[in-house]
Amino acid sequence: MDDFKNVVTQAGRIPSLVDVDVFALQNCYEVNYGLDPGRVVALVNLGASVMNVNIVAQGQTVFWRDITFGGNQLPTPCRSAYSLNFEQAESLKKGEPVAGQTAQSIQPVLTGVSEDVAAELQKTIDFFQATSGSDRVDSIMPVAGARR
């Protein structure tokens, strides 16, 4: 927490509020899009090490979950499959060709990782529906996260 406070202070600002990821996610969504009380929206933030899911219904958070998966995990399968070091795998993740590999050639590996993320998100939504009595999620809204 102090690290975040120090960054804000060094930028010449005075921090006045610190919020939990999932609630900050909802605040950002609400400011930019407003809240429709008739819709159930899953807000998804895929950060570097954690994926946050916040399900909002009737203008309020009704379910949230932090999943230990993030963008930092993407290079690992590429490193294993193509014998790359971390920096090379990071470059590939960003679409830069490395060691004879391109974003196109690693697509099968990235597809597998994407399917794992989708499965975790589906399990989260299924659990929400089973425990909340809600039979629907109207939309899934991905948002960009900060690198952690």
Structure notes:
There is one protein chain. By secondary structure, this protein is α+β, with helices and mostly antiparallel strands. The protein has a single domain, classed as 2-Layer Sandwich (Nucleotidyltransferase, domain 5). Helix 3 packs across helix 4. Strand 2 and strand 3 form a beta hairpin. The relative contact order is 0.17. Helix content is about 45%, strand content about 20%.
Spell out the key features of this protein:
single chain; 148 residues; alpha+beta; Nucleotidyltransferase, domain 5; four-stranded mixed β-sheet; 5 helices; 43% helix
Q: H/E element string?
A: HHEEEHHHE
Return the CATH architecture. Answer: 2-Layer Sandwich
Please, what is the CATH homologous superfamily? ATPase, nucleotide binding domain
The total count of strands amounts to 4
Query: Could you report the average pLDDT, rounded to the nearest whole number?
Result: 85
Distance between the termini: 13 Å
Q: Which oligomeric state applies?
A: single chain
Q: Structural class, please?
A: alpha+beta
Shape: flat
Give a quick summary of the entry.
With 148 residues, the protein is of the alpha+beta class. 43% of the residues lie in helices and 19% in strands.
Please render the helix and strand layout as text.
Layout (H helix, E strand, L loop, with lengths): L1 H9 L10 H13 L6 E7 L4 E7 L2 E8 L7 H8 L3 H8 L13 H26 L6 E6 L4
Parallel strand pairs: 1-4
Antiparallel strand pairs: 1-2, 2-3
Helix pairs in contact: 3-4
